[in-house]
Structures are given as structure tokens and as C-alpha cells.
User: Which sequence fits this backbone?
């Protein structure tokens, strides 16, 4: 990636299932220098029964995850006063609302579509490029960390 670039804050997540009532399992986001963070989330007690334990290892989330409170502090520190860009802004809003509600807070982020970052906003073309890039780079398009890597690379290429 280009050095001395100012990258947007792109955020991706993994949720317990594909519904908008799902709970967050992992959050990944980019930093302005093109680096990124990926954090597993320790589930709240009332979330555990909604998590498919055949798909996610609950023990790993408890052993290696961060609390919602710690993750919120880190996200706020890293992305304060920035627009968050997501491939699915509406669902991200639901996920952040779920996460922030654990600390009785509301998030105050402006959330936009990651596609707005491209001059050519042909979504199908961008999706095709992202699939090709994922294959080239050996990325899993379902993993938040890999999604961030892919978006950062595509943004860097479009400059």
C-alpha cells in the first residue's frame, strides 16, 4: 500500500447469524495509516443462546475476546470524528447499536457505504474486483479482517 496515505475508517463485522437481530462476534476496522485491527467480542450473557455453537467456539470468544466496553473504548479512540464506511451500513448500524447498548450508550458515528469511496460507483464492477482480489490474495471474504485488507487494497489501487 501507498505510504503517507490517509485511509478512511472502513469497518467490517462478523455476526452470530445473517439476521438483523444477530449479535456481534468480531469487529475489524482500518486505521488512517492503512493498518487495521480485528477484535473478537466476549458475548454478553443474554447473547450466548443466540450464538450457533456449531459455527462459533464460545470458549474461544471468552478466552481471546475483548469486552464490549473495552472494544467500544478502542473503536472510539481509533475512529473518533471519522465517517465509518461499511459494505452494509444499515446492518453495521444494528450491530453497533447492539454493542453500544451493552454499556447503555449510543454510538454517534456517521456510517456510509464503502462504495461511496470509489469514483466509479458501479457496485457490480467493484464486487467483481473484490472477488478477484480475494482469490489473488488468498483472502476469506467472510472474515472481517480479510474484508478490511481487501477494501484497503482496492482503495489504494483506485488512487
Assistant:
Amino acid at each position: 500500500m501507498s505510504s503517507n496515505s490517509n485511509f478512511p475508517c472502513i469497518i467490517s463485522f462478523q455476526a452470530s447469524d445473517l439476521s438483523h437481530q444477530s449479535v456481534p462476534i468480531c469487529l475489524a476496522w482500518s486505521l488512517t495509516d492503512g493498518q487495521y485491527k480485528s477484535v473478537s467480542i466476549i458475548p454478553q450473557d443474554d447473547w450466548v443462546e443466540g450464538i450457533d455453537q456449531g459455527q462459533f467456539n464460545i470458549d474461544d470468544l471468552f478466552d481471546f475476546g475483548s469486552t464490549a466496553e473495552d472494544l467500544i473504548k478502542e473503536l472510539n479512540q481509533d475512529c473518533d470524528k471519522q465517517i465509518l464506511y461499511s459494505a452494509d451500513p444499515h446492518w453495521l448500524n444494528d450491530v453497533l447499536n447492539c454493542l453500544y447498548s451493552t454499556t447503555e450508550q449510543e454510538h454517534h458515528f456517521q456510517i456510509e457505504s464503502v462504495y461511496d469511496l470509489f469514483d466509479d460507483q458501479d457496485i457490480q464492477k467493484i464486487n467483481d474486483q473484490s472477488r478477484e482480489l480475494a482469490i489473488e490474495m488468498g483472502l476469506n471474504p467472510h472474515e472481517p479482517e480479510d474484508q478490511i485488507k481487501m477494501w484497503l487494497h482496492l482503495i489504494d489501487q483506485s488512487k
